[in-house]
Amino acid sequence: MREAYLLYRLRGGYRRGKELKTLEGLMEVQTAAMAFGGGVSLLFLKSFLSHQHHKYQGGGGGNLPPVPEVPGLPFLGNLLQLKEKRPYKTFTEWADKYGPIYSIKTGATSMVVINSNDLAKEAFVTRFDSISTRKLSKALKILSADKTMVAMSDYDEYHKTLKRNLLASFLGPDALKKHRPHRDALAENISNQLHDLAPNSSHKAVNLRNIFQSELLTLAFKQTFGRDLESIYIGDLGVTMTKDEIFEVLVLDPLMGAIEVDWRDFFPYLSWIPNASFEEKLEQMHLRREAVMKAVIQQHKKRIDSGEHLNSYIDYLLSEAQPLTEKQLIMLLWEPIIQTADTTMITTEWAMYELAKSPEKQSRLYDEIQSVCGSEKITEEKLCKMPYLSAVFHETLRRHSPVPILPLRHVHENTELGGYHVPSGTELAINIYGCNMEREIWEDPENWNPERFLSENKSIDLQRTMAFGGGKRLCAGAMQAMLIACASIGRMIREFEWRLKDDTGEDVTTLALTAQKLNPMLAVIKPRN
Ligand code: HEM
């Protein structure tokens, strides 16, 4: 068994501290393009330019002007200008120079980038019918099992059915009520672990991420399968995996895999050229995830066959939903696990980082909690009475939007945005980070300042900051994320005083597909009386 496990690891099973590859990987595109040689490049350049020319002259645009272009290079377009690991920053800088909507070329693909709230709303609602599909990168195609999940599917009947299922059993108001004991257990467990660590935290700082992430995974398993999972034998791989290892296969690997760059994404007409190492890496990731999910599903199918039913997503999908293929079942059960374990943790960690950095704001929040709860526990019912806590949550989503660029949308018929003609075949990037940094809407946007939401004098709706997207593709888990993050932040501030272990100034660097803090927050915590 141990040998099989070692063999599996050697084949690339787990890699900690692996090198990040985002658009930095575009450098490889340059190398690849050079490798094809000048003659070939010129040939493609000619066909590329003629294609672009026809697109912009093509029908459907009426008299509307084309979207302003960011100047780039022939053939490569703007690829080399996107080497920065955080393209949302580059997009936002370009918005200052070229306006809130512009078009860029990533190789042979035209992409329109939107950086303002009004334009995003236009794309979410008014023009949605022309922009409701997705054209996935090679990596996302493999990892989403070719759109077999809610978030990556086109907006069609399949998507609507899946989203309905998810809301009915997992994330809608009734389902959230039923899963309440699991969220309460999460808050309780985090509190207990922090109390255990507090006495030594001035020597050994507390890494909230480790605790929170593991509890979120527990929650995700309870909601998806009815109970937590400590370890499991994976028949297809011949190994037993611990919870940490399962987390790596189900959450960390796919998050990293999703940002792997295959140069053929930028030059679709070169798709016939093999890129075996890329495909093998992603396929391995997919197979490992599938093997783990299959093992867990098998275990629970046996439970259900034996007559034991639990309040869980798998019980719902197998009894109430229309029949699903094995591939669909695997993907639908995996999706909320990765979604639960990632963005809520990112938001909570950023909020706690900002509060630990700012003793006055921390005190203000503590005073609010005390005045509402007195000697009683914080419960979800009391959250609506705490406007400052809500403001902390929304300001964190604004300043540190966990999904800084929405998954790309595909324009499938000629349309318009902001008074410009956008031809069919264009990719659309909605830069949520850019929208949340828009100076006309947010004063001093770089500054994390929850007070800005208090002056609004009205309740804050979940779409105020664009962090959950909008329209028909609005995040299905927004309410769950809000409940977990607010209840946990409230409880952690109520029970402890937080300060950063090393307050060495701003540390707002991010990592990966979602805007995870690059360096985990390390804090010293002191129990309050
Ligand atoms: C703070 C936490 C979260 C943030 C900021 C967030 C953000 C987002 C964003 C930006 C989208 C894309 C919308 C689009 O493409 O237009 C999305 C989609 C989605 N999210 Fe979340 N999310 C969070 C938590 C969750 C949780 C906890 C779940 C489930 C357990 C979840 C489930 C989904 C699903 C299913 C979709 C696809 C919706 C669709 O395509 O119709 N999210 N989320």
Residues in β-strands, percent: 5-15%
**Average of per-residue pLDDT values:** 86
| Number of continuous helical runs | 19
Distinct ligands, ions and cofactors found in the model? protoporphyrin IX containing FE
How far is it from the N-terminal to the C-terminal residue, by CA? 50 Å
Radius of gyration, whole Å: 24 Å
Q: Would you report the number of β strands?
A: 13
Q: How would you characterize the largest beta sheet?
A: 4 strands, mixed
Report the helical percentage: 40-55%
Biggest β-sheet: strands ordered side by side in the sheet: 1-2-9-6
Shape: globular
Q: Structural class, from secondary structure content?
A: alpha+beta
Low-confidence stretches: 1-60
GO molecular function, one term: oxidoreductase activity, acting on paired donors, with incorporation or reduction of molecular oxygen, NAD(P)H as one donor, and incorporation of one atom of oxygen
Keywords: Heme, Iron, Metal-binding, Monooxygenase, Oxidoreductase
InterPro entries: Cyt_P450, Cyt_P450_CS, Cyt_P450_E_grp-I, Cyt_P450_sf, KO_chloroplastic
Pfam families: p450
